[in-house]
Amino acid sequence: MAAAAAALLRAWFWNERFWLPHNVTWADLAGEPGPPGSGLQYPRAGHVLSAFPLALGIFAVRLLFERFIAKPCAINLGIQDSGPHRAQPNAILEKVFTSITKSPDGKRLEGLSKQLDWDVRKIQRWFRHRRNQDKPTTLTKFCESMWRFTFYLSIFLYGIRFLWSAPWFWDTRQCWYNYPFQPLTSRLYYYYILELAFYWSLMFSQFTDIKRKDFLIMFVHHLATIGLITFSYMNNMVRVGTLVLCLHDASDFLLEAAKLANYAKYQRLCDAFFMLFGVVFIVTRLGIYPFWILNTTLFESWELIGPYPSWWLFNGLLITLQVLHIIWSYLIIRIAYKALVRGKVSKDDRSDVESSSEEEDATSNSTKGVFSTSSNGSNRVNGHVASGQWTEEE
């Protein structure tokens, strides 16, 4: 019975009428597109499974990179492995913090003030210090950003080099000619699976990395990205998929460069990188992406191959990414506006930054950079804006 149910589920999931254009079957894509021994083949669903061990390998490489390359670089730049100010030991406040609330309201603060004979501001400061002492150090954030900067820059340069000689880079209609009977080259395969493995590693490490306010948005982003890469690979939309991947990689390394400059306290360099990132992000995500990528997936493909069920799913995921692009672009524009008003990059609207400095109590209206190393915000936006961390305090 179980075997029959599994077979029925398998047949339902791999329904050819969902995945493939009309009059195309999986058997048509099972053979070699070239002469025998050519080594060419069409994408197969089983290929994406190789992304999982590769994702673990990428995560292991990241740990080694952060320990033996990023950390020494940070120390040479004067970034110390020192955490925020630790809260004064207090059993009563610790019990409230761990068992009741990490952010007590006014009524509870008044009660604690009477019980401990402390003024309310001192208790508020204690809770702020206690929250911050669990947050990562600047050294940790520098190492994370340096890893992402290195990967994003490397994969972007590889993608540009690969696509420069690809005909569909210059004429997007080439993505759909003779579709889906387009052979998979080894370079295209490695580019695609490496990107998929990296996003799987981000999905897993998101639960251990620096926590940010946009955790849910980034989770949706990673799911949509993994879904896009996987679905486009299984039904051989890899040509247009490479364009989407390269376009998204174009701005990510600039964001990480801005964060690296901030952690090293090069504020002007940080501001310059962030402004450059903002320009590239908005141009690529609000300009090139809808008018180049969505144009070919929605209109040119409709003209050349016509819609079918997985075509709608693929475009639905692409449109989901566009919605996220609009949200992140709005946040970037807010930061840029504050930078023009205040004279430097201001707080981002995405991380769970919470200042640990006591001077905030006295100067709550002061202008303080979002990347300020006295704050304990950390992608990602990884990402993207996906890895950024300029956000308002909670």
Short description:
The protein is mostly helical and 394 residues long. The chain has helices at 2-13, 16-19, 51-76, 91-99, 106-116, 120-132, 138-164, 167-170, 186-205, 215-234, 238-263, 267-304, 309-342, 359-362.
Can you characterise this structure?
Pathway: Lipid metabolism; sphingolipid metabolism; Sphingolipid metabolism. Residues 93-137 form the Homeobox domain. The chain is mainly α and 394 residues long. It is 63% helix and 0% strand. It is elongated. The protein starts with a helix and ends in a 32-residue tail after the last helix. Mean pLDDT is 82; it is low at 347-394.
Name the helix and strand elements from N-terminus to C-terminus, one letter apiece: HHHHHHHHHHHHHH
Give Rg in angstroms.
Answer: 25 Å
pLDDT < 50 stretches: 347-394
Q: What is the makeup of the main sheet?
A: none
Counting helices, strands and paired strands, the structural category is mainly alpha
Using the alpha-carbon principal axes, give the shape.
Answer: elongated
The residue fraction in helices comes out at 55-70%
User: How many beta-strand segments?
Assistant: 0
CA-to-CA gap between the ends?
A: 53 Å
List keywords for this structure.
394 residues; mainly alpha; transmembrane; 63% helix
Task: Note the topology.
Layout: H1 2-13, H2 16-19, H3 51-76, H4 91-99, H5 106-116, H6 120-132, H7 138-164, H8 167-170, H9 186-205, H10 215-234, H11 238-263, H12 267-304, H13 309-342, H14 359-362
Helix pairs in contact: 3-7, 3-9, 7-9, 7-11, 9-10, 9-11, 10-13, 11-12, 12-13
Catalytic activity: sphinganine + octadecanoyl-CoA = N-(octadecanoyl)-sphinganine + CoA + H(+)
Protein name: Ceramide synthase 5
InterPro entries: HD (IPR001356), Homeodomain-like_sf (IPR009057), Lag1/Lac1-like (IPR016439), TLC-dom (IPR006634)
